[in-house]
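Q: My labmate handed me this sequence with no annotations at all. I'd like to see what the chain might look like in three dimensions before we decide whether it's worth expressing. Could you predict it?
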Amino acid sequence: MTLGDGPAYPVVPPNGVASLRDDLRAAGWYLHKMMWVVHRRYSGPVIVRGRQIDGDSQLRFDHRRLAELRLPGAPAGAGRWRYYPSYTALLGPGCFAVQIDGRGFSDIVVFAAR
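A: Here is what I predict for the chain of 114 residues:
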């Protein structure tokens, strides 16, 4: 299931809750696999930033725990949906929000991790 208004979306389980139970762990962080999907009609780049909203924990991206995730624009004339596998790095369970920005749009998506 995708969340948000698009044209870039995170893919989450149907209940909107990311399970940390089987996730990789590195230096105290849960590395939760997350797919990002970008609509075929949007060809520009996307930047994603996030944080915990029911506490003061951090949310990072990739196994390097980057402060923002940058999804590149599509090649000219590509016209296809784009898929970007990544890790969302969390220190523990909670409620999180990501802000997804691109040319002409900004979207905020909320999800839980348990």
